[in-house]
Amino acid sequence: MKIYSVAEVTGYLRELLEADSLLADLWISGEVSNLLESAAGHLYFTLKDEASQLRCVLFHRARLDLTLENGMAAVAHGRISIYEVSGALQFYVDVVQPEGMGILHLEFERLKVKLAEEGLFEPARKRALPPFPQRIGVVTSPDSAVLHDIINIISRRYPLVELVLAPTPVQGDGAATGIVQAFNTINETEGIDLVILARGGGSLEELWAFNEEKVARAIYASRVPVISGVGHDTDFTIADFVADKRAPTPSAAAELAVPHRAELEARLQSHSRALVAALSREFAQYRQRIDELTRVSSMHLGNLLTISQEKLRGRELKLGSLSPLATLERGYALVQHAATGEVISRIDHVHRGDAIEVKVSDGQFKSRVTGSKKGLQAWMNSFPSKKR
Amino acid sequence: MDEQLSFEEALNRLEKITQTLEGGGLRLEEAIALFEDGIRLAKICNEQLNAAELKISQIQTPFEQEQESKDESP
Fold first, then answer.
1. Contact: B35, A278; criterion CB under 8 Å
2. Nearest Cα to A47, choosing from A30, A34, A70?
3. From the first residue on, what is the mean pLDDT of each consecutive set of 10 residues in chain A (388 residues)?
4. From the list B14, B24, B55, which residue is nearest A162 (CB)?
5. Tell me, what's the ipTM?
6. Which residues pair with A137 in a beta bridge?
7. Nearest CA in chain B to A158
8. Helix H segments across A25-142?
9. Which residues pair with A95 in a beta bridge?
10. Strand (E) positions, A132-210?
11. Taking a C-beta distance cutoff of 8 angstroms, is the pair A99, A77 a contact?
């Protein structure tokens, strides 16, 4: 036999209690009494029924909107353990709801709050869907109407993808585990860039797998974005909150997953039209430039011509001043032998009786030499003498 | 090598080409080459859309393996 210390016993009890999976996660209903709020904001109360009572503590961080009151019939979720300092058995509560809700609703609300606090629903962590996915993982039950709908819709809208089916039960025992395993398999498969998680409509019980924590965590941990399409428009599951994109139905999930063929064809057409328009515009601009260049160059050519013409006229004028015609105009005459055309510029060139030809500015006449005299003195003297 | 372009790549390239051509300021040979490229890409996209047939494959999940072993045992 051994003698134990008190702490050893309470410590041992605590280990025992905390090793028990039922006591680690359970809902308890009862009437609230002895309600007390500590300065730190923790709530201490007792849950009791006709036969028994249980001490409860609700720590500040886990508080809900609900205002607890003595005498209230409530349902609380939490774990059972021992507070070693006082040796008292305690119910460590994380959620309290008024009594009257079904257990699934309670569980749904509890998990929703818990995962929201953990940040699993944060809009900031939602990933964008690939605009043109190439391999889409489909997590749903095989041979279901849902699967056929998804195949039909995607085949009609955008047949350029490969659907990779990851079959799993989506209802009943093992559904949640199956979904988690399907996600694991998909994460290990190369090239998948999007996952559709789908199930047709059903009751809260039938859709329950999609409200289980491990499914939520599998979606959160998915390597690629997840679209959820579970149940009908009005059904919201925890999976919907965690998914990167929530579709109201499985068909809507398929539609969200791929672009629409008609839309793509319209886009291609508008691009083709834009290309033709842009090239025509380009051509028109070039044509305009060519026109301008032609105009400009012909203008230059015209200028050049004018300049040449002016130069030519200048030359002509100069030429005119050198011409013997101008000299003749001034009263001089050109005298040539009529027979030879030899120009007579000296008196020795002529003899009495020679036939000569005299050219003046506007004509010519024939003449005969009747006499000649050398020296210019006599000719000079014939001019009237200048008066000094 | 163009035949291996994915639809997305072809469409993205087409979009860029349209933008460049609409931006203008190109040499005429460049504009014509881009135009030809663009029309060819649009054709590739259209052909892919028209020719494609949805591929479906299935990966082995533990659930499937269980189903199969159940089917085999009488």
1. yes
2. A30
3. 93 94 93 89 90 91 68 91 92 86 83 91 94 95 91 94 94 92 94 95 90 96 96 88 96 95 92 89 84 84 80 74 70 84 83 87 87 73 59
4. B55
5. 0.80
6. A164, A195
7. B49
8. 103-118
9. A77
10. 135-140, 162-167, 194-199
11. no
